[in-house]
Design a protein that fits this description.
Largest sheet: 22 strands, antiparallel, barrel
Helix content: under 10%
Number of helices: 4
CATH topology: Maltoporin, Chain A
Bound molecules: copper (II) ion
């Protein structure tokens, strides 16, 4: 399900490599975590529910969890921190969501069929693609590469009982020594799901279409070009935890990349990418029977960018140098329609046509001190420039900030270092980091953004300073042939911590709202993130695995931060014999002792759920068929996790079946 590997970031081949193979031939460079995404032709795939969502796959990482506002488009958290504090990229490309309510994180615009793996780097080790506090997730595209495999393909279909979800997908690949092309389509359609013990969760339906293609042409042994497109469209997506739904969430993500293997032996690879993406997000409340006032809230986001990355080795050094730049434009509107037709409609720019221009350089070096000790450094420097391109939007914000300019420039530093000890059985590491980030578009320039968690309208603050983080991390791991254990801990002292605080002088835009919060900066907040994973293989075919996660987050007054994970433990027993595979899983969380009433949070009770999965693979000549069936939340427990927005209950018992046929 998950391979935690010590992985050099210097991937020498563009082919889809098995993460284990990569790890074995690379020196310790940084401590990345790699989640392999299921694939009909991947030897690991029968460990997963083959047609699970990308969120399910990423949840295998102890560093990643999700805020859930319904059944669709969960918001990824890295090390217990929400999207403003992390950088999520697709093959290094920056994409900004177009929703002021965080309904459309980057992960919602891809499908598992588009991806081969996700690389997660925590803290400052994750700053390669942009300034970050929590770390980065890079989702890597799936591609056959120049393998000379000829034609290959697969079709897959799945059914899930809890929301009558129907899943269908197909993929076709062609590869020769000089050309490859991968095309895939995926469709998901789900009705409302049922919570544990029965009870329909209204507005939890969704429909998603995804189409992607990637193609490469190699004109000599050292140079090639790749082009990639992803088109993703979700329609009629319900968000039971929010007062609005989504009529349309649409993304086009395109790129061209040039690869070169330099003649010099000291340079391993040079790659340069140009990319563009455009996102349209149409939110509405037409399906909701009683809302105090009807509103339309569309949003648009467009990003153009490039990067160039050079990797090399020199004596005992492995290094990586990159430049990247992007420009994003974010615009969102709100129109309110009063019930009384004599009253005027009210129009606001909730994101006042905000431009974000970022340009950064990043360098990374790892140096092998001795057989067993490696030191690594990263340093990133960025220039971040915001501008408000709409005069009406600027004037609206100037009501609160009369002195504000229409633009602001910031400089961002992200740097870290670590020492790693590794012998045949043990790996230990300690690291330090310092990072800065700019406020997000909402934090800086949002205008009356309603948050249904604490029922406050939020107003951005363009005058905030950069948020800064000092981090300490350590890990220790042991592995032999049958047994492995790994423990990670990371502590973040975040100064000028950005958070919304009530302003009693301001009145909300709508009835039934508690008030208005304005983003401001706490002197500091602290986060402590811990996880441990254990795996033991026994009796020829059995594997027992367990992982536990515990986090703590406090502000400068020692008050709890919101959405912090209580102790959560997952235990899995697996059995594999030839082509048969079975798995039983227990997930349990303690009562949430540390929660934040100030942010509308209440105590989440403890829960335990059981899952079961079976799979069998058949080979018929060159063809392969995988049948997979399972049940999630077997005892139909009614529960929600700490990260379920407004305590929306998780799905009840779900029986599913997946069939994958590959040729
Ligand atoms: Cu939205």
């Amino acid at each position: 399900m998950k391979k935690i590997q010590i992985l050099g970031i210097l991937l020498l081949s563009i082919n889809v490599l098995n993460a284990q193979e990569v790890a074995q031939d690379s020196i310790v460079h940084k401590l990345s975590e790699v989640v392999l995404v299921g694939n009909a032709t991947n030897k690991h795939h029968n460990e997963n529910k083959s047609l699970a969502t990308i969120e399910d796959y990423l949840s295998a990482s102890p560093s990643v969890d999700f805020i859930k506002r319904g059944a669709y488009a969960w918001e990824p958290m890295v090390q217990g921190m929400a999207t403003e504090r992390s950088v999520v990229t697709i093959d290094g490309m920056r994409i900004y969501g177009a929703c002021t309510d965080k309904m459309d994180p980057i992960t919602s615009y891809v499908e598992i069929s588009n991806l081969s793996k996700a690389t997660i780097n925590i803290g400052q080790q994750g700053a390669e693609n942009g300034a970050t506090i929590a770390g980065g997730i890079d989702l890597e595209r799936r591609k056959t590469g120049f393998r000379n495999n000829g034609w290959k393909g697969s079709v897959q279909t799945g059914l899930e009982s809890v929301n009558e979800q129907k899943i269908a997908g197909a993929a076709l690949q062609y590869s020769s020594n000089t050309f490859f092309s991968d095309v895939d389509v995926m469709y998901r359609n789900a009705e409302n799901y049922s919570a544990g013990g029965g009870g329909e969760v209204l507005y939890s339906q969704f429909t998603k279409y995804n189409l992607s293609a990637i193609t490469g042409y190699k004109w000599n042994d050292r140079q090639w070009l790749e082009a990639s497109v992803i088109y993703d469209e979700a329609r009629d997506v319900g968000y039971p935890a929010l007062p609005m739904d989504v009529l349309l969430a649409q993304a086009f993500i395109g790129s061209m990349e040039y690869f070169a293997l330099p003649e010099s032996e000291k340079l391993t690879q040079w790659k340069t990418k140009l990319y563009y993406n455009t996102i349209t997000h149409i939110m509405d409340d037409t399906q909701r029977p009683d809302v105090p006032i009807r509103m339309d809230m569309p949003g648009w986001s467009k990003t153009i960018g490039m990067y160039s990355k050079l990797n090399g080795t020199h004596n005992k050094h492995r290094w990586n140098l990159s430049v990247n730049t992007h420009y994003n434009n974010s615009l969102a509107e709100m129109t309110m329609f009063p019930e009384n037709p004599d009253e005027n409609e009210m129009f606001m720019l909730t994101w006042p046509d905000v431009g974000t221009l970022y340009a950064g350089v990043f360098a990374e070096d790892s140096f092998k001190l001795s057989e067993k000790f490696t030191v690594g450094f990263t340093v990133g420097l960025g220039v971040h420039h915001n501008s408000i391109n709409d005069i009406f939007g600027l004037q609206s914000l100037q009501i609160f900030y009369p002195e504000m300019d229409d633009s602001k420039t910031r400089f961002l530093l992200n740097t870290g270092g670590r020492v790693v000890f590794q012998n045949n059985f043990w790996t230990h590491s300690i690291g330090l980091g310092y990072g800065e980030r700019a406020p997000s578009v909402s934090e800086g320039y949002g205008f009356y953004l309603f948050n249904s968690f604490d029922a406050f309208d939020y107003i951005g603050n363009p005058e905030m300073m950069n948020e800064k983080s000092l981090e300490f991390n350590a890990s220790t791991g042991f592995h032999n042939k049958a047994f492995s254990v790994k423990f990670n801990t990371a502590f973040y002292h975040i100064s000028d911590y950005i958070i919304g605080k009530p302003d009693p002088d301001l009145s909300p835009m709508n009835i039934g709202i508690n008030g208005v919060k304005v983003y401001e900066q706490l002197p500091y907040a602290q986060l402590w993130s811990n996880d441990i994973s254990v795996s033991y293989e026994f009796l020829n075919g059995f594997t027992a695995k367990a992982k536990a996660i515990y986090r703590l987050g406090r502000d400068h007054n020692n008050e709890n931060l919101p959405l912090i994970q209580p102790l959560t433990v997952e235990t899995v027993l697996r059995y594999r014999k030839n082509l048969f595979y079975a798995e039983a899983l227990v997930e349990t969380a303690t009562k949430q002792y540390d929660f934040s009433p100030e942010f509308g949070e209440n105590q989440t009770p403890a829960y335990t759920i059981f899952n079961l999965a079976l799979s069998q693979t058949f080979y018929i000549n060159q063809q392969k068929m995988v049948l997979k069936a399972g049940a999630e939340n077997l005892l139909d427990e009614n529960y929600s996790t700490y990260a379920d927005w407004n305590n929306i209950p998780r799905p009840g018992r779900n029986v599913y079946a997946n069939v994958v046929y590959a040729f």
